[in-house]
Amino acid sequence: METTMYNEYGSSNVSQLKQEENGMQKGNESETAFAELERGVHAALETYSNVHRGSGHNSMVSSHLYEHARDIVLEYMGLNKEKNITIFCSSKRTNDLTSQLKSGSYQFLTSKEVGLPLGITAVVVGKKALPKGVPSECGGGTARLVAANWIIWNNGPDKFEAGTPAIVNVIAFSKALLLMKQYGKDIFKKLSQKDLSVNELVYKDGLEKYSGPELMKELKQTLIGRGMIVPTMEGERQFVNLDNSASTPTFTPIWNTFRQALRLPEKRRQEVVQEVKTICSEILGAPLENYDIIFTKNTTESINLVSENLINNPENNIDPVVVISLLEHSSNDLPWRMISPNSLVRLGVNKEGFIDLVELEKNLREYNLEYKYAKKRIKIVALSGASNVLGSCHNIKEVSSIVHKYGAKLLVDGAQVVAHLKVDIEKDGIDYMAFSAHKVYAPFGTGVLVVRKGLLNYNLNEKKRIQLSGEENIGGIASLGKALVLLQRIGMDVVHKEEQVLTKRILDGMSKIPGLTVFGVNDSKSPQFNDRIGVIVFETKGILHNTLAEEMFRKGGIGVRYGCHCAHLLVKKITGISPVLEQVQRVVLTVAPKTQLPGVVRVSLGIENTEEDVDILIEVLHKLIQQMKEKPSGAQKKANSKAEADFQKQLDDFSQAAVQRVYA
């Protein structure tokens, strides 16, 4: 089969490349600067992952690139790194944050001022001026440790960057600042715009002749970073990414859409916004006559908008209550805690990760029909469509039927669903759905809130502010549209079937490894196997989760995630953390913030993964667990220490080279 070939910058259009080269040869500095910007961002995408909480080469490099971006902003603005800190926000969240700050304690710089529609604002705040207490936006990353009745908030910028930040856009923004120092502050404002029709931008690519499994096969060949060779303690290996639940990599056609969208004229951008809303509407089964589609920065911001709406629109003689489950990610837990004290009802889950529908109905009946709790009424039931820990998927249609029977509304956290399963919002009776593009192969900083018309009651000025904030990031919106179109052309049934084959292979392989325990639906013959996605968490007897995950990347070149996965309550339950031990954790973490707490290792699948990836995973786990249980001799310890020091040097060199490829 013929495979389309792509160059370093992701273009299959040779004539277009020649035109771009000719433009640079003619001395057009704006074209030269933009080409260098593209090159740097493409390099960042080659090792893209979510930041801070993962193991593996990609997570390490992306974290370094993201944190370095903070320093680039400070240097560009001529501010002291010791006294100031950079926080990256959407424009809406910039207003929310700066409203808590004293005049003169902060400065900010927007991507719009730079001349690029990235939807980024860098807010530089004096460290001593950072607000205390609860952040204005809560969710993943804002808390270090969460219990049912208390929260230890994070320190520094993480506390104010709820959810996954727009990592790639931030890197692009900081790279642009470096180029502005070289070419002048107006260099990107002078860049000529390149008009493309919406059809050319979103629907056209070099893979149009393919569909179904064939398209999936061809698309895999365009994975940016495909075949990346990384150092390990056992020699160079091809990197295996098994961390797709945290964030997904991207593919050449999606990258092309993003970079081309940055140069669209203003008149064309609104057409793109409307077309991507139509794409979301059609693919997600949410007719535009019945649903509003709002672009945000991520899932977390979308859920916070619904929570804020509930707070800001009180009903007479009603105390609003929200039902969630023990499965929920912090982004579908913490925002609801802000409504009022005791505003949450939390449903338990069984050992395979499913709620009890009888318990759900009992709560709704007691609150909304029998009025057992005075003025308290359940207004919203907010559940994950699929757990980011156990992979379990609720029967949303059954849940919706019960929820609406008692006059409540249903919100689905779709962060782990849209890239894996067919979604039909209206058919399933969903009132709100939130998800992020970075989990749908478009990691360019866009989130989506789909909401039934009439349910958001922000005033006109605030609605406008929300809309403009999300729509500033035209590249993120366009690339999301492209990603959804590609998934539709493959077919979500094909995606799910392929994922189930790989999940079965993982579970069957792990079942043969002594001392390894898989949580949730762990038997591929289980009747509930089809009610899960390819997210597998496990622990190994006698080996700490962080130690095993680190060894998987140090010796096997495999990137995974470990810890509590922003689902602290669930992970504490499945790992057997008692209430007493939970209090001990609270004290320990307060005294020693860097203490490693109990957790689990997670592998998670995406459409780029193959049977070969799975076989490498099982082989590496078998070998590592056996090795780590053996007690080394004195000579072996000495040799291991030397090997670790050598590897650390290789790793530092690899990371530094990756950072240089982007920012140099």
Which CATH top level class of the largest domain fits?
Answer: Alpha Beta
In helices, the fraction of residues equals 40-55%
Structural class: alpha/beta
**Biggest sheet record:** 7 strands, mixed
CATH architecture of the largest domain: Alpha-Beta Complex
Average pLDDT number: 92
Describe this entry's structure for a reader.
It is a single chain. The protein is of the alpha/beta class and 664 residues long. The chain folds into 3 domains: 14-196, Type I PLP-dependent aspartate aminotransferase-like (Major domain) (Aspartate Aminotransferase, domain 2); 233-250 and 491-661, Aspartate Aminotransferase, domain 1, CATH 3.90.1150.10; 285-457, Aspartate Aminotransferase, domain 2. The protein has 22 helices and 20 strands. The chain has a 7-stranded mixed sheet with strand order 9-15-14-13-12-10-11, with helices on both faces. The chain has a 4-stranded antiparallel sheet with strand order 16-17-20-19. Strands 1-3-2 form a 3-stranded antiparallel sheet. A hairpin with a 6-residue loop joins strand 6 (229-230) and strand 7. Helix 3 (57-76) packs across helix 6 (167-183) and helix 10 (266-284) runs parallel beside helix 16. The longest helix is centred in the last third of the chain and has 30 residues, at 634-663. It is globular and about 65 Å long. The relative contact order is 0.13.
